[in-house]
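User: Hi! I have a protein structure encoded as tokens and I'd like to know what sequence might fold into it. I'm fairly new to this, so please keep things simple.
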């Protein structure tokens, strides 16, 4: 046998149909005052928050909202950067990863070494595997 569905009664405002015109006007006036009071409070809080954000920015911290994190744009793609770093050199994947970043390649990847390794393996026309884990540019 299915259970009866029970619903919780919502706390309701006084029924509008049962209120007199004077009571309705008084309720509207009361709510209007409450709204204006809340709006003034919100404005004060926003001003305080703006001041805190300004202080955080002057200290060099990120804002509380953090903002939108944009992906860094590089002048060259990863493969071209790798080719430039490896020109006339032989390096391990870790060394290449560090050299590319020191040369100015920006990334937010947590596993950038893996991405570099995949690029070196994939682009076998541009990179030559000299020995295990060591590459050079062709």
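Assistant: Happy to help. Inverse folding works backwards from shape to sequence: for each of the 138 positions I chose a residue that suits the local structure. Here it is:
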């Amino acid at each position: 046998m299915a259970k009866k569905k029970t619903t919780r009664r919502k706390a309701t405002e006084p029924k509008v149909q049962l209120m007199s015109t004077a009571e309705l006007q008084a309720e509207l006036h009361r709510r209007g005052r409450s709204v204006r009071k809340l709006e003034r409070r919100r404005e004060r809080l926003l001003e305080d928050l703006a001041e805190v954000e300004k202080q955080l920015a002057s200290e060099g911290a990120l804002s509380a909202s953090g903002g939108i994190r944009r992906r860094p744009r590089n002048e060259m793609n990863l493969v071209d950067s790798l080719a430039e770093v490896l020109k006339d050199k032989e390096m391990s994947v870790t060394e290449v990863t560090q050299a590319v970043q020191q040369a100015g390649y920006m990334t937010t990847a947590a596993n950038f070494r893996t991405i570099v390794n995949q690029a070196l393996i994939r682009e076998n026309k541009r990179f030559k595997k000299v020995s295990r884990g060591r590459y050079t540019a062709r």
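A useful reference point when you look it over: The chain has two domains: 18-58, 78-137. Feel free to ask if any position seems puzzling.
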